[in-house]
Each structure stands twice: as C-alpha cells, then as structure tokens.
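Lab channel / #folding
Pinned by the channel admin:
"Please post every new chain as: sequence first, then the structure tokens as a reply. Keep commentary short and put observations after the output so the thread stays searchable."

First post following the new format, from NK:
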Amino acid sequence: MTTIPVAQAVGTVLCHDITRIEPGVQKGPVFRKGHVIREEDIPVLLSVGKENLYVYEPRPGQVHENDAAVRIGNAVIGKNIAFSDIKEGRINFLAAAHGLLRVDVDALARVNACEEIVLATLHTMQEVKKGQAVGGTRIIPLLIEDEKITRLEHSVTGPVLEVLPFRALRVGMVTTGNEVYSGRIKDAFGPVIRQKFESLGSTVIGQTFSDDSIDMTVAGIRNFIADGADMVVCTGGMSVDPDDRTPAAIRAAGGTVVTYGAPTFPGAMFLLAYINNIPVLGLPGCVMYHRASIFDLVVPRLLAGIPVTREDIVALGHGGFCAGCGECRYPNCAFGKN
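Reply from TO:
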C-alpha cells in the first residue's frame, strides 16, 4: 500500500472508499475500494478534498479483484447460471431458469480451500426461481497472484453449481379411500396437489377415485400410465391401518419400490417406486395440510430429471425434522437442508 498524489494515481487501485458529504443532501461513496483510478476521476477526487490516496500499484502477474471474480465465476458455474454486476469485487450468481439448484459440495470445499478465494452458495437440491441469487464469489485481497486463479481454473473439472430446469410433466392422481369414493367426505387432497404441481410447471392431467380395494387402485395407476402420464401420485391409504392398502397396490401394479418410509417429519409414510422408469409416489396425508413436507424435498428432484435413490432418501434424515415454526418460512429454513 502506497500514499500517492491524486494527480499521479491514474491506473492504480484505490485501497479505501472515498465519501462525499453534502449536508442535508447526501452522504455516500463516490468511489469504492478496489476502483481503478481513471483520468476523469481526478477532478472528482479533488472536489471532495482528496489530494493524496492510499493505493495499490499492481505488479506484473497480479489480477484485480473484479477480473478475478469473473474468472472464478467462469470456472465454477454450470448450466443456467448468470452473473450479476460486479460490486466491490464480488459477483453474485443468478438462476437463469426456474428449477433445482445442484451444488457439488465436495468441489465447493476444494474451491474454498484455495488461498484468498471464497465461494458461497445456497444449499444444494432446492427449488430456485428465475433471477434468484444462488451464490457469490470474490477474492479476499484487492489483487491476487495470477497463478492462484490459474491453478483454480485447472483444478475445477465440472460445474460447482448449476440450475436444472424443471420438466413440464403430465401427472396422474389416484385418490384412495372408501370415505372419499363413497362421497361421505369431500376430497381435500386434489386441490393441494394440483396447486403444488402447477407451481412447479407441471400439470395434473386427471384424478381417479378408488375405494380401498387393491384392484381398483391398480387399475387407476395403470390407466394413467397407458394414457401417457409421466408420473403417478397416489393420495391416501399410506398408513399402517388395515384399510390402507396403497403401498400394496403400487407393488401389485408393477412398481419397483425404492423406499417405503422416509426419515422426514412430516412425510415419514412416503413411498417412491418406479414402473418402467415412471415415478409412482405414495403421498401421506401430511402433504395435504403441511406447507412443507416430503413432497417438497423429493418431487423437485424428479421434475429436474434426477433419479432418486434409497441413499438420497436416507440422507434426508439430517435436516428432515420440521421445526414447526408459528409462521412457516420454507424454503428459507433448515427443513430438508442436509
């Protein structure tokens, strides 16, 4: 860091903010730390009483913080990530599509192990909206050795963060239970499920009602698949009561079960199976009356085209306990953030 007369400062890097104060009008920065002084900046600096500045004089082989942020960003981003404007040496990453944010957590740790480089993201495997900020990067000093950035660029072999757009799927819904089938109670599951899928860009193409018989539920599942459904969800009949036979019906329809049960509250009685690569879900009653549940942790992954495994479900246990806040803030909370 060097003290230098303003008139000689062109091309150097400002080490501190320069503030302009106009009593009763404004107080704010004229130039931010890290700004590269230009010829046209000299009169402005003099007008705010700055005749000398603390500056860095870049040496050959050094990279300015703004240029470093761009290079780091280009090295780590994958699909559907855009850059914000650079502010004070930092670039934020913005989702360029509505979809699922996927972060390579191990690669993220390796980036942050690089001296003087920092990269932060939202938690992986969560829904993000187009334009939403999902991460950011910068270097710690104002200038960094070029070799450090080059080393990072060569070490990153795949995207550290990317957004996978949601596919628009056709979803069939089979609602089970004698009480609904017979008309004794009104179905409350259907409207909730339709709204959830619509918010994710998919469409419920139909809803079939079934009594508690396995055969009728099997027929409903198979009919939707025959009609071209990309996913089938079964609502109701997921508990251990004698009349709750949805899991047995999904198996009887040809489902290969990935899991029956999930370490999440709400959502423990969840079932995921596949029939000819078509996901078939058994949704427990909590999906109907909890704003956030197992539905919100698993369905976005399926819509993003990510196969969900037994190991993925097991991993949900860390963070799978909903705190039951008086005012639900999901997804801005810890639920599902493993």
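NK: The chain has eleven helices and 20 strands.
TO: also worth noting, Residues 26 and 141 are 29 Å apart (CA to CA).
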